[in-house]
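Crash report, auto-generated. Payload:
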Amino acid sequence: MGNKKVAVVGAGLVGSLMAVLLAKKGMQVDVFERRPDLRKAKAIGGRSINLALSNRGFKALSLAGFDKEIRDVSIPMYGRQMHDVEGNLTYQAYGKEKEAIYSVSRGQLNQKLMNLADDYENVKYRFDRACEDIDLSKNEITFNNSSTHGKEYFSYDQIFGADGAFSAVRGVLQKTPMFNYSQEYLPHGYKELSFPANADGTHCFDKNCLHIWPRGEFMMIALPNLDGSFTVTLFFPMKGEISFESLDTEEKVLDFFNKTFPDAVPYMPTLVEDFFSNPTSTLVTVRCSPWNYEDKVMLLGDASHAVVPFYGQGLNSGLEDCTVFFEMYEKHKGNVHALFEAFSEQRVPDGNAIADLALYNYIEMRDLAGDKDFLLRKKIERKFSDLYPDKWMPLYSQVTFSHIRYSEALAAGNRQRKIMDEVMEMDSIHDQWDDQKVIDKILSLVE
Amino acid sequence: MGNKKVAVVGAGLVGSLMAVLLAKKGMQVDVFERRPDLRKAKAIGGRSINLALSNRGFKALSLAGFDKEIRDVSIPMYGRQMHDVEGNLTYQAYGKEKEAIYSVSRGQLNQKLMNLADDYENVKYRFDRACEDIDLSKNEITFNNSSTHGKEYFSYDQIFGADGAFSAVRGVLQKTPMFNYSQEYLPHGYKELSFPANADGTHCFDKNCLHIWPRGEFMMIALPNLDGSFTVTLFFPMKGEISFESLDTEEKVLDFFNKTFPDAVPYMPTLVEDFFSNPTSTLVTVRCSPWNYEDKVMLLGDASHAVVPFYGQGLNSGLEDCTVFFEMYEKHKGNVHALFEAFSEQRVPDGNAIADLALYNYIEMRDLAGDKDFLLRKKIERKFSDLYPDKWMPLYSQVTFSHIRYSEALAAGNRQRKIMDEVMEMDSIHDQWDDQKVIDKILSLVE
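Recovered output after restart:
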């Protein structure tokens, strides 16, 4: 693919990293973005959950030599801090000591990646251009230029669609024969709220945790920002008795929050304004197959696998697409069609697996994170894993701290769950969980 | 909805019947079709499997007083005739005596329905108009007029999208929040072939059967036409060792057919020409939810639930949409929004159920229809059902000869399968299937 002319549609995080990595291979890269240059725009809040970068994301950034710079502007979160209705806290480490996920600002990360890409002479950003259609016979993209209101036409050897969950590039592939596609919404949506920084610039809760208020049918979470604030997100039913629809007056909102999240309300001075002025967003899972069209188009990131945010892997999986693509690129040098086919074939099951894992994790976070059986289960797993790290890596660690394929992690997680189901059936497991017989039981089951 | 101005997008079978039934309620109905008037066009073959109309379809046609006229131009098929590789025949009745599915020409049925609709003063057909977009805020449809090449804009109180599996109306809804959608292709496609009429105008095989050549990974079927011919359809892998892709020379095609369908080849004088000139079509399952957008748009037929053709229920389920809609219309008179919501809520699970049933039936037809265990299972079921019709209606009969909701039929079918699994485990069931103990066993399990 060297010396080729390629397009990346979408100047988001995955698109911009892809542009850098393609440029490093010597390609001429045009990056198209339907919005204006976000580096010149005012900050737009209220829609985007904080990102939690973890190992897969950092590995991809390291291909661009960029992981350290990002780690410096992010905040490590070493575990979940659960808040119950009485304000009692329960802490659960994510992994081993020093293993953390990293809270980072989507906007800041995106700007930095765009600046990095802009430094390459062979990368050109073209903003205000919305992809309208692609003529696949000649790989010609039609753009609508929102400044001139005219149409523009560009042809490329390859087109990378990194244009998000509502991808226009994918919309074109959707009309080709044998393209499987699904979009599935949760009955829950989300809304961003905020805990501002304390007067002295510090955080109102421990900044090195991801905070969760699990409440069964719904939950609230908070991720720290560098400026002392937290970005807070309420995941909540769209409709029904207790829902975004039903909380329709200031009084109802305050009442509900005071009853449900009493330890958080004192830190939410603009709760009511935020609740009514910030948009309610939906949560969609997108799957498709194949991710490529011949040797012409490849989908990446949310465009091919949009997942709900509950495993913190949406961006990480999109960035990992880049890692995997360039690993395979080396093997398939010169044969773009074989490369595209092989990448899609390998990566589709991983996209589906992280989609499933993320949907499952919503139940875990909102429903189980406060549950005694669940916490004991995690404790036993952790103990066994510490004793026999070669025999047991917890599912969360496989997904978050390893580079094991998501599909393999999912399969391993299913095997582990069955084993732990048996362990939790043992007599007096809550009293005797620390006994050697529990370890022996697991040993007998894993082997 | 009386006195309202409504649009039906798509002048196919479901669209045209819907137009008649809406017109009967006094509405002004515009029917839009992207193709020219098929009554003025030459016959277009090679793409559309013969239709098998059954009870659900006839019930809907009877709402338009049209069932008898259609029955007169159709051929009843009372059972499946299976052809094995040696040319041996096995017959399996579809239901009780006189119960049949009816082979009918799609084109003829469509023309008759269009003529019927045209007789209403308040129905107007507008051909050569492809739906391009809908502005949902004012329910205004943009059409591309293929004669003038200009755009046309029409607004309606309600819009019914009956524009098929690749529905443009559904494409608009797909972009609205919380619209769940999936399209899933089988790895198999199909191609139409033909057995012409005998010289004396008779059929080369029994015309009152649906003929099947089940061959495990694939199959061929034939449905009779009034003129003495059969329309033959080969369902076959798209790619792979034995596939549409691999049969790429005349010799390979003839070789394959001679080996695989030896009793059929003598009746296929144009086999090779047909094989290479007729298109290979794909088999898609489409599901979505909801089927409505507020009180503005409603999807019907393949637009909301395209299914694979193996249960012969694609058209029947689409026509049943009309039956169910007008049953509910009476209950919700005056409240279109409530009507649309209730219809979608009731009908979505039925659309999903017939999609699942049709996918399952492909396995049954191509794989099991020649299997001894399977045939015995059907024989025992039939015997029990004849003895205790109130306790057991075979799944096929529920789907084909009843008006039981598809979702209930699917659930009942799953219960029945579990019972028959137990029955088939009985000792020497192949020798003793006719014993009273088998009946007693089933009686003990159904109650």
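Post-recovery validation: Chain B touches chain A at residues 166, 174-175, 177-185, 238, 282 (CB under 8 Å).
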